[in-house]
Every structure is written in C-alpha cells, then in structure tokens.
Specification:
Order of helices and strands: HHHHH
CATH class: Mainly Alpha
Helix content: 55-70%
Radius of gyration: 12 Å
Number of strands: 0
CATH architecture: Orthogonal Bundle
CATH topology: 434 Repressor (Amino-terminal Domain)
Strand content: under 5%
Oligomer: single chain
Number of domains: 1
Distance between the termini: 12 Å
Number of helices: 5
C-alpha cells in the first residue's frame, strides 16, 4: 500500500506535507514524516499508528483511486 500511495502522490505532484493536510481535513492525524515511513515500509516501531481502514479510505478518496488500487501490489517497474 505504501508504494502505491507514494507513486500516486508523486503522480499528482503532491508533497507528503500536502497529503498530511488533506488527511487532517478528513479527521486523520498523520504527520508527513509518518506518511513517508508508511510509504517506505518503516512505519511500525517508531511510535506511529497502524494503518486503519479509515486511513485506507481517506488515502483513496484524496488520491482519487479505489481502495483496491492502493492494495494491489506494485511490480518492480513501479506500476
């Protein structure tokens, strides 16, 4: 999921800080540093909340994709 969030965020020329602001507007409190750790797979073990269904739905809504698009594995070419 993190790789997909990063890819989609970058495709939309959105910073992790901008994504964090959008999430806060929807009641999800994730700092941009937490989003970057989520995107790189270093989320747990750093006082960061686990990804919830609410997070998944909010990311999908903000990025304009389905939740399935976020959950589908990315191949090595980044697609």
């Amino acid at each position: 999921m993190g790789r997909n969030i990063r890819r989609l965020r970058k495709e939309r020329k959105m910073s992790s800080a901008a994504l964090s602001r959008e999430l806060r507007g929807r009641g999800i409190r994730l700092q941009d540093s937490q989003i970057r750790r989520m995107e790189t797979g270093t989320l747990h073990g750093q006082s960061t909340p686990a990804v919830t269904v609410d997070h998944l739905v909010a990311f999908a809504w903000i990025l304009g994709v389905s939740t399935t698009d976020l959950l589908t594995p990315v191949d090595e070419g980044g697609r």
